[in-house]
## 1
Amino acid sequence: MKAPIIYCSLFLFASCGKGGGAADDSSHNYYDPNDYTYPTVVVNTPTDSQAFPNGSSIDVTGNVSDNSLYQGSITMVNDNSGLVVKDQNYEIHYIPSYNFSMSYVASVSALTSYTITVKFEDHGHNVTTKTVKVTVNP
């Protein structure tokens, strides 16, 4: 008689796990294996090789579009030191088009170069990256 009770207990235990397969829309990480379209990223400002005077604001603006956007980031690195001076992350789900922006006020004592990397990913794990290099004069 104890065997049926053990089987029932094992069945209930095994079936109590939380769901979460690829079709589970409750997860924002939903992976779409049929999505082969990469996000389109346009950086409006700044332009590549643009120079800024010390103390000015470097405004990064642009747009990303895709059929199933997931997340993105803008990272600004001081090329002279290798340090990340500004990092902004976005979590945007299924919005077909999104305008992004980030500002950084540069304060330098010597000519300084920065690399700005804009990266967005969709739910198909397709990633588009754009890079812009700028300088700040003391």
## 2
Amino acid sequence: MLFVPYVPPHRPSARAQELSRRLKETIDQYSILHPDLKTEEIQQAAQLVTPRAVQQKQIVALVIAGAVLLVAALGAVVEKGGSGIDEQFLLPGIILVVGVVLVGVMIVLKSR
């Protein structure tokens, strides 16, 4: 049985909510002055002000998820003796890969 832990998202603090309201107002005012402003430009601007630590956490989480996936695949091949894949291995292998990918995605989402 595969168990995927779920952690509900944290509720933003009052200061975070106030800051998001002010950012929205600023973006709205800027959009009036620059009607050709695109959503991608807003996202790029937000990334520029995002602390590097958050971006580094996302990269580390992806690297860890990839490493775990690689080790799991290598372990499966070694356990199988390199003799190819059969039906006995297929279902547990799929479950393992899906589980590892889900954990990696959860780590990335939690770090945001």
